[in-house]
Amino acid sequence: MKKFILYFLVIFFCFYITLPQNVYASSYTDIYDPESFSDFHRDDLNLYAGSAVIIDADSGRILYGKSAAEPMANASTTKILTCILALELGNPDDVVPVSDYACSMPKVKLGFSSGDTFYLKDLLYSLMLESHNDSAVAVAEHIAGSAEAFADLMNEKAEEIGCTNSHFVTPNGLDDEDEGGEHHTTAYDLSLLMAYCIQNETFLEITQTASAQISTTDGSKTWSLTNHNSLLQMVDGALSGKTGFTAKAGYCYVGACESGDHRYTFALLACGWPNHREYKWSDAKQLIFYADQHYEDRVLTQESSEIALSVSLADAVSAAGGHITYPETVAAVVADEAVTGFVSDTDEVEIQYDLPESLTAPVVAGTVVGAEKIYLNGVLYASREISLAGSAELCDLTWCLMWVVRQFFTFL
After folding, report:
1. What is the per-residue pLDDT across 162-185, written as a single tens digit (0 to 9) for each?
2. Do strands 393-394 and 316-317 pair parallel, antiparallel, or not at all (unpaired)?
């Protein structure tokens, strides 16, 4: 028996030292860049706007763009940011006193007097339905103490949302500048802001209201307000929107709509000057039609049950069921859910598997060893973990000794 054990150990040791060593593939990191998801301008839509974009509100992916990242004046579309900040930092029932400075704002204005007080929510209806510049300043002063301090909050919020090409100076969008530069944003940033805003139910309630009546807190003055967002009546599924105009910015518009299972947000800057205020509605409808006609949900990669991968395995041994085997590969599977995307016929989908070239035992089922990466037009769109489906022990001297010992006691 002693000779048998010694002979067995020598054979296993020689086999062990001849096994190949493992080699790992290098990993890499990809940067998510939503602007690269589209070539922006596949077709010439003959838009009036100097800058335009429509995005999938859930992913931020650009579906169509025209100079979408160009910084431009954006007039009263700014007020969507003023409104969402007031909703997040204030209370709709807050009592807001108005100052001399707020009263000094140019038209379009509500026309209140210094010392009047309003409930915050009433001023937000004034802000979003009639685009009153004095109401915007009153809201800003209530939230931050001054319009300048409120601008700081606006820029912080914009950065948090992902707006990388914007600088806000005024709460009402009137053209101005400070040490940080001129008041501006981009069509893409503006559409991101709207995508954020429509997640707030109170924002939607205010901006979808056709008309409202507001008053000072003591009821001594009242005003009737009408929503100037005509797209609510023009397009089925329209969710929200805000118009804007200054001599510098021209006619501007930012909006949101729902189509099927998707929500779009879109922005139009420099969309004509007097007497062309209707251009923005034509452009908005063209953008929505384009997205509906060119994009659909598709499965980009199948479920894991249909994906079988394997990795080269070194130094492995298995004694399952009393039989010794030396597996040269180990099975790997991708996470369960299929990946879908909102894509067009011209989008290019590529799937890459980031896996080590080989593994060295021991390996345990369920261990994450890599990733399946789905690229859309060359940009990383989604990633799923790849895990081992099988286990194997390390074929080393210790394992050989333990196996021999177990066999010895089995024969006793």
Report:
1. 999 999 999 999 999 999 999 999
2. antiparallel
